[in-house]
């Protein structure tokens, strides 16, 4: 038997879109993305203030390097946000020596570009083992170096 589905059920579900920033406070180019809401680049507009708070809370619960990479992968998959964390060009003595950046993209508000890296930095300050694993992944602690073979 087949069921008849009402036409209202076939309508695409509209997700809430981030409210616009105050004039002159942001350079996110939100209006350009509103014209093509079904484009993959417009996914960033789904990051409403409430969703941003949930994301920040999720970042604060990260307890391992693999989990941090997973959150970064989910941010890219769901919102198109590219996260880049690497040791800075100078010596890394504290978490402040790490470069935590979000790739520039239309729709990503200036406040969000500051808030997400700050939450990651705070998470790293609370979990130094993640920092050590990150440094090790970039071969700063020498884990990737193979000891010379003895004959």
Quick recap:
This protein has helices spanning 30-34, 49-60, 65-79, 110-126, 128-137, and strands at 83-87, 98-102.
Defining key terms:
151 residues, mainly alpha, globular, two-stranded antiparallel sheet
Compute the number of helices.
5
Shape designation:
globular
Fraction of residues in H or I helices: 25-40%
> What sequence of helices (H) and strands (E) makes up the elements?
HHHEEHH
Unreliable residue runs: 143-151
Report the radius of gyration as a whole number of Å: 20 Å
Q: Which structural class do you get from the secondary structure elements?
A: mainly alpha
Strand content: 5-15%
Head-to-tail CA distance between termini: 76 Å
Going across the biggest sheet, name each strand in turn: 1-2
Describe this protein's structure:
By secondary structure, the protein is mainly α. The protein contains five helices and two strands, in the order H-H-H-E-E-H-H. The chain has helices spanning 30-34, 49-60, 65-79, 110-126, 128-137, and strands at 83-87, 98-102. A two-stranded antiparallel ribbon has the order 1-2. The longest helix has 17 residues, at 110-126. The radius of gyration is 20 Å and the shape is globular. The termini are far apart.
């Amino acid at each position: 038997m087949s069921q008849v589905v009402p036409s209202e059920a076939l309508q695409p579900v509209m997700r809430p879109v981030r409210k616009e920033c105050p004039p002159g406070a942001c350079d996110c180019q939100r209006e350009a993305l509103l014209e093509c809401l079904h484009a993959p680049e417009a996914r960033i507009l789904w990051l409403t203030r409430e969703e941003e708070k949930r994301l920040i809370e999720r970042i604060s619960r990260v307890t391992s390097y693999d989990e941090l990479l997973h959150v970064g992968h989910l941010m890219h998959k769901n919102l198109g946000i590219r996260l880049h964390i690497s040791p800075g060009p100078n010596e890394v003595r504290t978490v402040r020596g790490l470069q935590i950046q979000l790739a520039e993209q239309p729709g990503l508000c200036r406040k969000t570009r500051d808030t997400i890296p700050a939450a990651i930095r705070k998470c790293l300050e609370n979990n130094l083992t993640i920092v050590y694993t990150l440094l090790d992944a970039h071969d700063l602690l020498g884990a990737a170096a193979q000891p010379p073979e003895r004959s």
